[in-house]
Amino acid sequence: MSTGGVEKGSGGGGSVKTPADFLKSIRGRPVVVKLNSGVDYRGILACLDGYMNIAMEQTEEYVNGQLKNKYGDAFIRGNNVLYISTSKRTVAESG
Amino acid sequence: MATEEESTVKEPLDLIRLSLDERIYVKLRSDRELRGKLHGTEKKKIKGKKKRTQRRRNLNLSAPGAFRPPLSLLESRRRTQAYDQHLNMILGDVEEILTTVEIDDETYEEIVRTTRRTVPFLFVRGDGVILVSPPLRTA
């Protein structure tokens, strides 16, 4: 799956979606959120809003590709977000 | 699709509301971290509570030129939220951790230093907030 930017028409469906549709469709899915500072957060998207404020669960923080921190719940302020991308998580999610 | 969204939590800011009066961890720009208690649910008590009904009877807001008291009198038990949509926050009993990395010119060694300070009451400007989370609990 290609990374970078809010994807239009990516993933399983081939139909053209607006960014707003994409944001609605990815709730509950494992995502990768990259911030302007370059820090990566991987977790399950709980919800988000039009400012790209993000609420995630089971979040892991990666700096330079290295796992630095884990958060049970994380809220990320939208202005810091560079992109939100869906991912296939290889790590098993513990309930 | 009206049932798609839960009635209590619609947007990420609602999730912060669940953490009111709890200790939270805040990551800020410039390699700073805060751990403190998010203020909320303060109940204002008004003196002369017995006279509240009298006050309300005299209140005819619709009448022209009626006396309009400040909202604080009407909302005696208002839940105050010490955060807003900008993520300005009020925290109590805060510990601030400042992280610096120094690189030695000769050895190219990275020296990571953390500076801590405690502040009893702090207003955080939302501009600098990156991440908010309930504090990590050791399993």
UniProtKB/TrEMBL annotation, chain A:
SMART domains membership: Sm
Region (Disordered): 1-20
Extent of Gly residues compositional bias: 1-15
Protein name: Sm domain-containing protein
Localization of this protein: Cytoplasm; Nucleus
Source organism per UniProt: Zingiber officinale (Ginger)
GO BP annotation list: maturation of SSU-rRNA; mRNA splicing, via spliceosome
GO MF annotation, one: RNA binding
Keyword terms: Cytoplasm, mRNA processing, mRNA splicing, Nucleus, Ribonucleoprotein, RNA-binding, Spliceosome
InterPro entries assigned to the protein according to its UniProt record, in alphabetical order: Lsm6/sSmF, Sm, Sm_dom_euk/arc
Pfam family, one: LSM
GO cellular-component term (any): spliceosomal complex
Matches recorded under CDD domains: LSm6 (cd01726)
Family: Belongs to the snRNP Sm proteins family. SmF/LSm6 subfamily.
Residues of the Sm domain: 18-90
Presence of keyword Nucleotide-binding: no
Purpose: Component of LSM protein complexes, which are involved in RNA processing. Component of the cytoplasmic LSM1-LSM7 complex which is involved in mRNA degradation by promoting decapping and leading to accurate 5'-3' mRNA decay. The cytoplasmic LSM1-LSM7 complex regulates developmental gene expression by the decapping of specific development-related transcripts. Component of the nuclear LSM2-LSM8 complex which is involved splicing nuclear mRNAs.
